[in-house]
Specification:
Elements (H helix, E strand, L loop, with lengths): L1 H5 L4 H9 L11 H12 L2 H15 L3 H25 L6 H8 L2 H36 L13 E3 L5 E3 L6 H15 L2 H26 L23 H12 L5 H6 L8 H30 L10 H8 L8 H32 L18 H17 L2 H29 L14 H16 L2 H25 L1 H4 L2
Antiparallel strand pairs: 1-2
Helix pairs in contact: 3-9, 3-12, 3-14, 4-10, 4-12, 5-10, 5-12, 5-16, 5-17, 6-7, 6-16, 7-8, 7-14, 7-15, 7-16, 7-18, 8-14, 8-15, 9-12, 9-14, 10-17, 14-15, 16-17, 16-18
């Protein structure tokens, strides 16, 4: 049993599979496409949705420090991703890297965690999109009834699940269906649409920063680090750390970026550039937006699905003209995040299915468009269901722990592979190994430990379900084991 769990795929075999004409995927993405895909995935939920709730519940105005802590961990993890993406330029992200370095058991565990990561990331962004769209339509005099714009269930701080009385969050379901249709049309078409959206949303964010600075009330920054409420994670330095853990998934984009390596023209050169440049641009934007947001609105009032829209409204007539632009920018921005997250999720299904650990239907590539259509349709159905039923705060915390776990494994895998296969060609190398990868892993694990216990329980439950699937289906159908 242990031999099966620890059996590894040879990197040469992985590369051969990805370059095979039968793989069906088309290498259409340029370095510019990768950078905009990264920005498209990273700049979205973290700015337009999670900032408000993380400031209100955990860090207060010091949420900007939380973003700095998360950014540091992401830069270290990003260096490790860049080395892997250049060395093993295939779909599958950390799943594929783990299969080559740690073995099938770890690869399945990480792949299953990546499904959690992308599934709930996309669902939470769709809920945020719904909040902004509802707010925009209200401003135009069109109100969506609460029973069609609110999650069906909610999870109280007491630990209880309650029925809200709503049927489903329809706008969240709607946007996932539309984005999935674009993805089925092909990667080149999707990248072009994403490029346009990224330009729009970055311009809107810069407008908010530039004009919002003059409306900052520095009294809202006092105290900068609110006094701890008597419980770990509720303000104080522990709140800053928990805030970092919660917003960490705002940087998820470069992980999703690595899933597109098999569709990149020159992945060895362009993947590291795309990952690191998009990450650095987004980290700066996050810190600036968070500072302006908590300066305009007191952090205690920011527990809403559309915090930047609230800030614009609070600024009064002076910024009223910017309100529709901000909401449209948020809607466009969140749409691009959903696009890249759905792309990443479908490619994870494709990669795991190609190895036999999930049903083969997910590995089918549509000949006309060169995309895994069945995987995309399945991702659409599951993601839309979750987005329609569950609230934002439950979804976002689950994403954070999955992201942090994936980043930790990538950092540790770099150290392992440098020791076991030091002679492998590495177009890009992480400097100061093992110091920087171990520091990145430590920062990620520290943020994981700061997350609420309920989040850990959900991760354990998800892992248990994955273990059952692997034991009953994966081991028996693994192509690696069938070739013995």
């Amino acid at each position: 049993m242990f031999e099966k769990l620890s059996r590894k795929k040879e990197i040469a075999d992985i590369l051969k599979e990805s370059n095979s004409a039968t793989s069906g995927m088309r290498r259409s993405l340029t370095a510019t496409n990768l950078i905009t895909l990264g920005i498209g995935a990273i700049v979205g939920t973290g700015i337009f949705v999670i900032t408000g709730q993380a400031a209100a519940d955990y860090a207060g105005p010091a949420l900007s420090l939380s973003f700095v802590i998360s950014a540091l961990g992401c830069v270290l993890a990003g260096l490790c991703y860049a080395e892997f993406a250049a060395m093993i330029p295939v779909s599958g992200s950390v799943y594929s890297y783990s299969y080559a370095t740690l073995g099938e058991g770890w690869a399945w565990f990480i792949g299953w965690t990546l499904i959690l990561e992308y599934l709930f990331a996309c669902s939470s962004v769709a809920v945020g999109w719904s909040g902004y769209m509802t707010s925009l339509l209200q401003g135009w005099g069109y109100a969506i009834p609460p029973h069609l714009s609110v999650a069906t269930f909610d999870h109280l701080k007491s630990g209880e699940w309650v029925f809200t009385g709503s049927i489903i969050n329809f706008p969240a379901v709607f946007i996932i269906a539309i984005i999935s249709a674009f993805l089925i049309g092909g990667i080149k078409q999707s990248a072009f649409i994403n490029n346009i959206i990224v330009v729009i949303k970055v311009c809107v964010i810069l407008l908010f920063i530039g004009f919002g600075i003059s409306y900052i009330d520095t009294a809202n920054w006092t105290p900068y680090i609110p006094e701890n409420a008597g419980e770990f994670g509720q303000y104080g330095w522990s709140g800053v750390l928990r805030g970092a853990g919660v917003v960490f998934y705002a940087y998820l984009g470069f992980d999703a970026l690595s899933t597109a390596a098999q569709e990149t023209r020159n992945p060895q050169r362009d993947m590291p550039r795309g990952i690191l440049i998009s990450l650095l641009i987004c980290a700066v934007l996050y810190v600036l937006v968070t500072s302006v947001l908590t300066g305009i609105v007191n952090y205690k009032e920011l527990h809403v699905d559309a915090p930047i829209a609230l800030a614009i409204d609070r600024a009064g007539e002076g910024l009223a003209w910017l309100s529709p632009f901000i909401k449209l920018g948020a809607i466009a921005g969140l749409s691009s995040v959903i696009l890249v997250m759905m792309l990443g999720q479908s490619r994870i299904y494709y990669s795991i299915s190609r190895d036999g650990l999930l049903p083969g239907m997910f590995a089918t590539i549509n000949r006309k468009h060169g995309v895994p259509r069945n995987a995309t349709i399945f991702a659409c159905i599951v993601t839309a269901t979750i987005a329609g039923l569950f609230p934002l705060h439950v979804l976002s915390e689950l994403v954070s722990i999955g992201t942090l776990l994936a980043f930790t494994v990538v950092c540790l895998s770099i150290v392992a592979l440098r020791r076991t296969q030091p002679s492998l060609p590495r177009p890009f190398k992480v400097p100061l190994v093992p110091l920087l990868p171990l520091l990145g892993a430590a920062l990620c694990m520290l943020q994981m430990l700061s997350l609420p216990w309920n989040t850990w329980m959900r991760l354990i439950g998800w892992t248990a379900v994955g273990l059952v699937i692997y034991v009953l289906y994966g081991i028996k159908n693994s192509k690696l084991h069938q070739n013995i």
